[in-house]
Predict the structure.
Amino acid sequence: MTAPTTGIVQALIADQFPHWAHLPVTPVPRQGWDNRTFRLGPDLSVRLPSAAAYVAAVAKEDQCLPALAAHLPLPVPEPVATGRPCEAYPHPWSVRRWIEGETLLDAPDVDRGRLADDLGRILTVLRAAPAAGGPAAGQHSFYRGCHPSAYADQVQQSLRLLDGAVDTEACQAVWDAGMRSAWARGPVWFHGDIAPGNLLTTGGVLSALIDFGTCGVGDPACDLQIAWTYFTGDERRRFRAAAGLDDATWARARAWTLWKALIMIAGISGTDRDGAQARNLAAVLADPVTG
């Protein structure tokens, strides 16, 4: 499939939503992995799955985002319209409300301590949203919200490939600790990809959550990985205090973070050209973020 271009998006809009055909279409500066996003005029965005594996998220977000928007105190990208597959682009796609703000990747002067507090509280509110009828964690969420053992084979393969390059004994200990518990309560909402690219800020303060493509209901441990991938030192403690949850859930979160770092360092999925995953692995091994 040809990657969506400005011209393709203009053609899709003109054909399926001609009342918006006069609006300018511009690609956003930072593109995600799962989708390609374009600005449509001042108030809308167009979001197109980058591959067939991400198509299920379109209908899921159409269903889930309005309900979550009504529950969360921060904006989320509410659906406005859904486009149909056609010859120019073979998948369903969506039009969303545009949310102003800068991602953490681009925002200067972020109050990181306040961010740790605010994000932890938002995740607590998300977990409290009514979960009945929400999509149970599974393939559509790439097993976020499931137990991290869903990727046990990849962890063991990575450790074999990285023997001598990382502290495999320490990695195994972190993984084993995460395997000793499971989410024992009813399923709760999780975002599935709490990462700097999916958190918007205004004036250095958290102002919106975006990209709910891997959301669902299940075990919220997957949403805590940012403790090691972004926060440091006392910020991690503040995030843990605000996010709550017990030691066992944090052990599973640590296992999730370990998995992602190992598979990228080992080259099983993606690469670690800039060393970010090596830094994440070092943080995971050094700091369990105990309560």
